[in-house]
Amino acid sequence: MLNDETLKALIEAIIYVAPEPVPFEAILNTLEGEERARVKSKLEELTADFQLEQHGIQIREVAGGYKFFSKPEHHDVLRKFVKSLKPAVRLSKPALETLAVIAYRQPVTLPEINEIRGVDCGGVIHTLLEKKLVVTSGRKNVVGRPILYRTSRDFLVHFGLKDVGELPSLKEFEELAKQALGSEWAAETGPQPPATAEASAPSASEPTPQDAAVAEESVSELSPPSLPEVEDQG
What we know:
CATH class of the largest domain: Mainly Alpha
Strand order of the largest sheet: 4-6-5
Strand content: 5-15%
Radius of gyration: 22 Å
Structural class: alpha+beta
Helix content: 40-55%
Distance between the termini: 40 Å
Number of strands: 7
Number of domains: 2
Shape: elongated
CATH superfamily of the largest domain: Winged helix-like DNA-binding domain superfamily/Winged helix DNA-binding domain
Number of helices: 11
């Protein structure tokens, strides 16, 4: 059985990460082994805690579940802040795949990216540069001196990373994609083609083209996982 503070912290985190109101039954089922009455009591305590003036957000019961909202008395300031934010960065599947290659192999040249993905990525690189997710990093000392690319500070901000050393492992990356896409993952990825004879075999710490691919056909939005959305109730 969890202690009181841990139980309240977990309830708070469950509500926080959910994009939609979380039904009480979903919270209870997640906290396996905890008594219904105790979970309900801690949820009520947590709701009361966030009603205190020192908190800028509150937990409200809406549409059969619980969700965090900003408080109405703060909406004028929050509207001003939200309007100052940069628009969300939205990327297509090819752009996500190319960004993954750069993130895990940086610094990397365009010919190397083309070889990994098997297609010309010049246009995609231009898009990533425009969105400031990648930057140039000098030139590689080989014939032709191709430009090197690496991820930018904006990339770290969008993904909530301290540095590239915090990038998830490729296995974790694949699991996150599976959880997010469910049955769409298999349909999108499908059987992977064998590596070409010309391509050099990557080391154990480097991604293969299959690893670098992000299985998402529709346009995807990239944002820091820890940044909550401001709800306008005014």
